[in-house]
Every structure is written in C-alpha cells, then in structure tokens.
Fold this sequence. Notes:
Blueprint: H1 3-10, E1 17-22, H2 25-34, E2 38-41, H3 43-49, H4 60-71, E3 78-81, H5 89-101, E4 106-110, H6 131-144, E5 151-156, H7 164-178, E6 182-185, H8 193-201, E7 208-210, H9 220-226, E8 229-234, H10 237-256, H11 269-275, H12 278-288
Parallel strand pairs: 1-2, 1-8, 2-3, 3-4, 4-5, 5-6, 6-7, 7-8
Helix pairs in contact: 2-4, 5-6, 6-7
Organism: Paralcaligenes ureilyticus
Family: Belongs to the isocitrate lyase/PEP mutase superfamily. PEP mutase family.
Pfam families: PEP_mutase
Amino acid sequence: MTKNQTLRAALSGDRLFTAMAAHNPLAAKLADEAGFSGIWGSGFELSASYALPDASILSMSTHLEMMRAISSVVSIPLIADIDTGFGNAVSVGYIVPQFEAAGASAIVMEDKTFPKDTSLRAQGRQELVRIEEFQGKIAAAAEARKDKDFVVIARVEALIAGLGQEEALKRGLAYEEAGADAILIHSKQKTPDEILAFIDAWPGHIPLVLVPTAYPQLTEADIAARGKVRIVIYGNHAIRAAVGAMRKVFAQIRSDGGIQGVENTIPSVKDIIALQGDEHMRGLERKFLR
C-alpha cells in the first residue's frame, strides 16, 4: 500500500496508529526506526527548533519545505500540522495540494483564529472561528486533495478554549458534515477525564484523534479500549528530548572543561554518519563514479 492508503486504512482498522512528532528529517528517521506508525509534522516542534513561539510566526513555505524533507527520508505516513490553514478557505484550497505533493498523507487543521496561540500555553489567547467558517475550510481541504486516500483531520479546540463538551461535540459533528475524515479533540487538563467524557459522548461516524501531552497517564491500551480513537499523536516529545539531552551534555562539558566526560555517553560519530545515509551514498559512488 502507499503511505496514504496505509493511513486511510488505519482510520477503519482495529489497531491504534501512533504518530511521533518530528521537527526535522533526523528526528523523523529516529521515530521510524523506533517503530512508530507515522510521523507528526509538528508546528510546535518546528517553531521551537527555530527558537520562535508557536504562534503563526513561521511561514507556510518553511512548514512545507520541512514536510517535504521529512517525507523523503521515512517509510511511514506523515501527518502535517498546518495550524489554522495559513488563511481562509481559499488559502486552504491552494495549500493542501502543496502539502500532498510534498509527501504528507494527511493534514490537521485547527478551528482557531489566525494568528493562533499554542494550545498548551498558560493563559493563552484561544479564540475560535465561527463554525460555518471552519466548515468552509474543511470542505475546501477535502475538495482540493488529489488522492482520495489523503486524510483531512479537523482539530476541535473548544475544550482548550474552555467552551465545554456541548460546544466541542457540536463543532466535531459540524466538521464531520463538512467532509473531515477524523476529529482531533484536544484538552490541556492534567487528567484525561474531560477527553474520556468526550469520547464516550461522541456520536459521530468518523474516528477520533488524541494528543495526550497534558494527561500522560492515559496509555495506548486505555485509549484503544474506548473503541472510537484510531490515531494517537505524541505532539512534542522529540524536541523536549533533544533539549533535555543537549542541556545535560553542554552543562557537563562546561563543568568538566572538556568533552572527556561525555564522549562515551552520547552516540558515536559513526552512528550519526550511518543515520545520514552514508551507506546509500557509498553505493552510488561505487555504481556511478568513473
């Protein structure tokens, strides 16, 4: 199957599809190596890698080129985070085919105003667009795709904005009606109670997507047992792991006055060269260099 077909099949399958966030091709390659089902092309991680807020500051072209670079090095589907769609429904109609051509198998678009504020920021500015407006954006995305297996996921931010379950369910159903293939329901509560209540109450015919960053105690087994969730996204663990590891190593080097104390605790240069695809390049040299 193609990557698009693999992700499409997961929406109706009986196994949970797990996507790990990545902010560059190397992180994506490591996630593929670890055995995740797919890659989450995270806007949060990409913004963080540029040391910028996740607030619609990076350009669409920066997002797009990173998705292209990521998709070229992994064998698993890529779900592209396109934030609020970089504009209105007309903009969405133009950019979705570009993300599809770049190798993404799906886009996730959220129903917040532009410019957005990251969902998990304390006292963040969480303003939602009108339901009808976002329906237009979802319909435009669904119509613009070239491959029928390309997946359009609508992200409902009503719980993030404190608008409650009724509003979240209303929006989810409206986005399903507009042509969404799945609903990503998001929460920043420290327990999964709010999300579990939504799952239990969800009357729609399309599956749900979760990002359990704020409530890590909810395991994949717990999620699968609810029966309505098909995709779990680990939204920011690659960049957090990278930052933690770099801080630790950098601090030790400064403390030791040299690299003698860290050399045996980090991956070897040989390991990095292998991840760079050196073997493939050497094969091309042997075959074509005269």
